[in-house]
Amino acid sequence: MGNDWYTSLVCHQNWFQAQLFDLVTVPLFEILVVALICLNMVEMMMETDDQSMQTDMKMFWFHFVVIIFFCIEFFLKIIAFRWHYFSYGLNILDFVILIFMIIGEWSAGGGIFSV
Q1: Which positions fall inside the Ion transport domain (predicted)?
Q2: Which of 83, 93, 111 is nearest to 33 (CA)?
Q3: pLDDT tens column, 42-63
Q4: Are 21 and 12 in contact (CB under 8 A)?
Q5: What would the DSSP string read from start to end of 43-89?
Q6: Which residue in 20, 2, 7 sits closest to 84, CA to CA?
Q7: Which of 20, 27, 43, 49 is nearest to 101 (CA)?
Q8: Residues with Cβ within 8 Å of residue 71, at least 6 apart in sequence
Q9: How many CB atoms lie within 10 A of CB 49?
Q10: Partner of 55 for a Cys bridge, out of 26, 48, 51, 103, CB 3.0 to 4.6 A?
């Protein structure tokens, strides 16, 4: 993503926000997020129409945990970057994908989101 780009935009007003900024811009954090994206992609490729209900539930809960991790990443970055989060195109894409993932799980009618 480029630490220099964000460093030139964000002026930290407190110690906590500066620590979060350092956490979310370290390359290891970004590598872990990309690894989670790849793992989620593999999980989605494993889905079939004729899988058992038990497999369905396992995949639902795995996907739910992935969404929780993406939400945590989103909130950490929002706190660290404030409104500058939305000045980077890939962050906007991440936000839109996260919203669609949440809507997709809610509208699927399974697990804890069923009405």
Answers
A1: 27-104
A2: 93
A3: 988 888 888 888 988 888 889 8
A4: yes
A5: HHHH--TT--HHHHHHHHHHHHHHHHHHHHHHHHHHHHHGGGGGGSH
A6: 7
A7: 43
A8: 98, 102
A9: 4
A10: 51
Give, in degrees to the nearest 5, the angle at Cα 23 between 21 and 28: 135
Crossing angle of the two packed helices 53-81 and 89-108, in degrees rounded to 10: 150
Task: Check if the beta carbon of residue 76 is closer than 8 Å to that of residue 20.
Answer: yes
Q: Yes or no: say if 86 and 95 are a contact pair by the CB < 8 Å rule.
A: yes
The total number of residues written for the chain in this structure: 115
12 in Cβ contact with 18 (< 8 Å): yes
CA distance 73 to 33: 8
pTM of the complete model: 0.78
> What tokens does 51 get?
């899988």
